[in-house]
GNAT family N-acetyltransferase (Alkalicoccobacillus porphyridii), 156 residues
Amino acid sequence: MIRTYNQKDAEFVIQSHYELYSQEYGYDLSFKKFIEGNVHGLINRSRADENIWIVDIVGEPKGSIGLGSVDDETAQLGLFLVDPSLRGQGYGHQLIETCIKFCQDHAKKRIILYTNEELTAARHLYRMHGFSLKETWTSTKSNKALKEELWEKLLF
């Protein structure tokens, strides 16, 4: 099931992102610090138009997605991860749909997200849910060259 985060989920979101991205993509410890800042920022702000959701399988967190507020009209999706053991079972779709509904309920007009070219499965899901690629650029983060991307979904 998909549920709203609780305080003890913060460490799961941080650690699961670090471990998965380190193992699958070779990201370094700076990525963990980046995720840590995002998670604690959302939790500490505690805004009504921001949230983190967790894939919960029999009491165990197995995935996440978060939404931060950029401004009154724009939300930013992030912290998207599904445990490799659950991939292909629809949890990624459910997480994205949860975010879209939440944004509609909070009168957001658009959702943006930043990702990179090597995250092909996530990019496929974003496209399936109506996001479109708006901008690309190359940068060095987590000790590697990345082709970063900005995606957007307009809500009406």
